[in-house]
Amino acid sequence: MEGEYLFRPGNIGKMEIKNRLVMAPMGMTGLVDLDGRYSQRGIDYFVARAKGGVGMIVTGLIPVEMEVEKRSTENLTMYPRADSPLFIARLNELTDAVHDYDTKIAAQLSAGMGRVARAAVAQSGWAVSSSSGPCFWDPAYKAKELTLEEIERLINAFEVAATTVQA
Asked: What is the pTM of this model?
């Protein structure tokens, strides 16, 4: 039958996934509480996909830190925060809930939006990138080039976040 292959188990390295249906990362607007953790609505959103039979879920963007690419308070509600202790408890709750349906979950860790940041972020001067260049949504604005210190900070933040979400 057509599509039968999609429902066979598959592997990514040593990790076996119950089928080949993978939910790609999506925007997190409305799925995160003001304090930077997944909301109950966010957990329910991912659990519904696990119940529906998805073999693996890749979360939406999770910034590893909030200082290099600064964000205004209004933007904080758009992203879970890997640097928030409250995030960890909810992440564990989310992980356990999707595992109940034999669904794997992977965190999409990020340094931020960079040159694809929304126009408001670009206009604020908060967009950063490995080199200065025009922002995608509003090319009139350029992303700020990261300093070596900022790059080191991001590397360290990725290490901490990766260890945190893996535990």
From this structure: 0.85
